[in-house]
Amino acid sequence: MTKTIIITSAVTGLLVVALLFGLAALVGNTSHIFGAQVQNDLFYFTGGIKVGNSSQYAIDSSGNVTTSGKLTLGASGTALSTIKCATATYDPGSLAAYVSSTVATSVTSTDIALPGAVMGDICIASLTSSTSSSASVGCIISGTATSTLTLQNKGGSALDLASGTAKVCYIH
User: What phi and psi values does residue 155 have, to the nearest 5 degrees?
Assistant: First the structure.
């Protein structure tokens, strides 16, 4: 038997999750709620989830979460309004060994366009060719819609990484 529950008031995503898990405890091993199969207290959605009378919060069939407002994780978490990423091919070239008196020769950087980012946003970076434990990758939002990815060799010998894909993300 399929049951349909309609929520007509504004409900936060956390309340929906609590409601879903509460209902799962009531239905036993296998049932269908909200168009999902419930099995062993896990929900399997083939379509997606929308909360509220608009697309304020949604989880699509691939598991992507979208919100037209802000998303807060945890009871006292910081509200996040945007998380976006960009990629670029980056060949850092050879980096000299780290020596405290010549730090500048063991560092290289490149700018990567990151539309929507503003100074003060959190920046996270990765580089697919960064396979050495001596390589330290970081980034900052250095201007409107611009991130600066930095690679530093912290080892005692020269480092020459292959070209790879740099990924930078910002959180606002």
Answer: -95, 175
CA distance 159 to 154: 9
Each residue's pLDDT tens digit, 25-80: 444 444 444 455 566 556 565 666 655 555 566 777 676 777 777 777 767 777 77
CA distance 166 to 172: 20
Residue 81, phi then psi, degrees to nearest 5: -105, -25
Please list, in sequence order, all residues whose beta carbon lies within 8 angstroms of the beta carbon of residue 164, skipping any fewer than 6 positions away. 89, 90, 91, 127, 128, 129, 130
78: in domain: no
Of 15, 41, 73, which marks where a domain is finished? 73
Structure tokens at 67: 């919100």
Residue with tokens 């409900």: 11
Q: Is the Cα torsion angle 118, 123, 127, 133 positive or negative in sign?
A: positive
CA atoms within 13 A of residue 118's CA, in its CB half-sphere: 3
